[in-house]
Amino acid sequence: MQLFLQSLMNGIVVGSVYTLVAVGFALTFSVMHVINFAHGEFYMVGSFMTFMVMRYIVDDFWVALLVSVVIGAGLGFLVERVFRPSYGKGLLTQFIIALGLVIVLQQAMLIIFGGQPKAVRSAYPTVHTLGVVSITDERLLVIGVSVALVVALFIFLNRTKTGKAMRAAAGNPLAARLVGISTHRMASLAFIVGIALAAVAGALLAPLYSINPFMGMRLTGVAMVIVVVAGIGSVGGAAIVGYVIGIVENLFAAYVSPEWSFAVMFALLIVVLLIKPMGLFGKERAGVAM
Amino acid sequence: MKRNALLKTKKWRNYLIGIAIALVLPLIVRLVSPFWLHELFLIAIFGIMAVSLNLILGYTGQANMAHGVLFGLGGYTSGLLVMRLGVNFWATIPIAGIAALIAGLVVGYATLRLRGVYFALATFAFMSLMLELYTNLRGITEGLEGLMPIPKPSIAGLTLGPQQTIIWVYIAIAFLSLTMFVTDRVVHSRVGRAFTAIRDDEDLAQSSGVNIFRYKMLSFSIATFFAGIAGALYSSYHGMMSPGDCNIMFLLQVIVAVVTGGMGTLLGPVLGSIFVVIAPEVLRVAEVYYYLIFGVLLVVITIFAPKGMMGLVKLIQVRLKARGSREQVTL
Fold it and tell me: In terms of CA atoms, which chain A residue is nearest residue B297?
């Protein structure tokens, strides 16, 4: 029982991070149907920015988080501009641009910070014990920030005019343009928000694990699994599946085998795709050509 | 009739030029610098991978992400047969191809009903799953360290060690030529026209009586067969096979070769392979920055030459012709 509850708790923490990354991935896909293969790298960059600020500038986690968000948003703006010439040019062209971005970001961090794994000091190391489960403030913070941001994103997408415009641009670009919504501007906004969320996830997880320039690829894989299982373009589905995958992965690692948990995730994805090709929450086929 | 005959002589001329290059180039490279023979071998291996991937990617329009791990399957099959059962390497080449083909049929059967992005992501999942298998089935694959040392094969009593790189180069080029020949024949047949019909408009192809699923499977299996062969050659030359040899970076390099060379052209993927192998070597002078520059280069090339090198070649040809006839060209 203790193992179960502790794994569940760890699963929720990891799932919180997965959700932030996957929601951003779904968001950047939604407007211009770009599969941003470099998405996990911004998570990695977020971690490194947190490391940089806390080690060399001010030793304050919240300042580091803020810097990561701002840098993430700025990168989001730039990255959308990089992808812009490729809209409608097909999946593969965008894949290669994304690969270029992956290499550039990894190498930039490698050159600046070196390849040694780095540790970020935990700002809130106090341990609480809830019955048989123990958890640090740091981890509670991860869960809290993740939930708050996902809720905020939902309010933004469903209640504000800009958010509704973004959904309109994603749902029917032509009709959106007819009523005066700039799809390019919406794509830009989606990238800014989506990549900033990935950077936040990286900042949140940085104190929990050691960080290195090549850790983003794994998160990209996880985000892809989550988004496809949820149904491409379903931001709400991605949020739910993100937590579920985090929990399932940790339970599987605790009870069966940690090294096979990644393989099981992909096997699960294949099964879902065979039974429900649109994903669990996908409504219609996203009209995406090669 | 006359036109046909003309095309035929032109075709024979092209074949002869190809054979001449294949025979002479390794000798020249050998004279200039034996180090580049190794690069030439890699170009030929990437060439086999890129030309075969192009069949499914460029001609049939399906973004197959499982091509790299099937290369790995070929490498593991050949390596295991040689190491554990002592099978003659030359006999394992077709077996590796067939093993990859069978795995390709399984993957294809599961994923080829999906379209566009969904197909790409499903094959991506297969790729990740197979890589996990290669890494975790330690009893068979030796995990991350990989199979090694795979004994070197011999030909007519001569062991093909590091001194005999030129023979490896000729072998690889021979298989590259075979891949190109088969691709060329397939593409210019009824089957090839079905492939391009599927690429251009799947629904239209289906309504004109093309059995989409069957033709996709055919394209998939021809391509994966050659991927398996490339894997067998590579693992034997290299003397080892590990998950790192067929991971996502490898796959992406092959895709880069196809796309920067020019999708849906015969020579494009070969030019792309030259780019993929040579560019990092040339950029090595930039020391720590060389991968960074390579990344920037990729983005810039893809944005400014979306049709790849063959697209540029065609553009130049059209421009030159236009200058001759003083016509205006709009592109």
Answer: A100
Per CATH, which fold does B33-325 belong to? ABC transporter involved in vitamin B12 uptake, BtuC (1.10.3470)
Distance from the first to the final alpha carbon of chain A: 48
Q: Interior CA angle at A110 toward A104 and A111, to 5°?
A: 90
CB contact under 8 A, B132 and A95: no
Per-position DSSP letters for B7-47, written without gaps between them? HHHHHHHHHHHHHHHHHHHHHHHHHH-THHHHHHHHHHHHH
Per-residue pLDDT for B179 more than 90? Answer: yes
Tell me, yes or no, if B109 comes closer than 8 A to chain A by beta carbon: no
Rounded CA gap, B88 and B214, in Å? 34
Q: What is the pLDDT of residues B207-217, one digit of tens each?
A: 888 899 999 99
Chain A positions touching B114 (Cβ under 8 A) are 273, 277
- The secondary structure of A41-81, three-state, reads HHHHHHHHHHHHHHHHHCCCHHHHHHHHHHHHHHHHHHHHH
Looking at the complex, does the CB of residue B310 fall below 8 Å from at least one CB of chain A? no
Mean pLDDT of chain A: 87
Q: Is B172 exposed, middle or buried (0-12, 13-18, 19+ CB in 10 A)?
A: buried
Q: How sure is the predictor about A287, in pLDDT bands with cuts at 50, 70 and 90?
A: very low
| φ, ψ dihedrals at B241, nearest 5° | -145, 125
pLDDT, position B147 = 87
Task: Band the pLDDT of B171: cuts 50, 70, 90.
Answer: very high
Q: Domain residues of chain A, as ranges?
A: 9-217
Biggest alpha carbon–alpha carbon distance for chain A: 58
Residues of chain A in contact with residue B68, where contact means CB-CB under 8 angstroms, are none
Q: For residues A122 and B147, is the Cβ–Cβ distance under 8 A?
A: no
Q: Are B148 and B239 in contact (CB under 8 A)?
A: yes
Give yes or no for a contact between B251 and B67, defined as CB atoms under 8 angstroms apart.
Answer: yes
State both tokens at B327.
Answer: 């016509």
Residue B146: strand, helix, or coil: coil
Residues of A in contact with B303 (CB under 8 A): 82, 85-86, 97
Checking if the pLDDT of A153 tops 50, the result is yes
pLDDT of residue B2: 62
**Closest to A53 in 3D by CA, of A44, A65, A42:** A65
Output the CA angle A177-A178-A180, nearest 5 degrees. 65
Q: Quote the CA–CA distance of A50 and A61 in Å, as a whole number.
A: 7
Whether residue B269 has a cis bond before it, omega within 30° of 0: no
Nearest chain B alpha carbon to A262: B132
pLDDT for the residue A285: 45
**Has residue A158 got a pLDDT over 80?**
yes
Q: Is the ipTM of this complex over 0.85?
A: no
pLDDT (tens digit, 9 = 90+) per residue, B79-107?
Answer: 999 998 988 999 999 999 999 999 999 99
The position carrying tokens 């289906």 is B206
Going by pLDDT thresholds of 50, 70 and 90, the confidence category of residue A289 is very low
pLDDT (tens digit, 9 = 90+) per residue, A265-284?
888 888 887 787 777 776 55
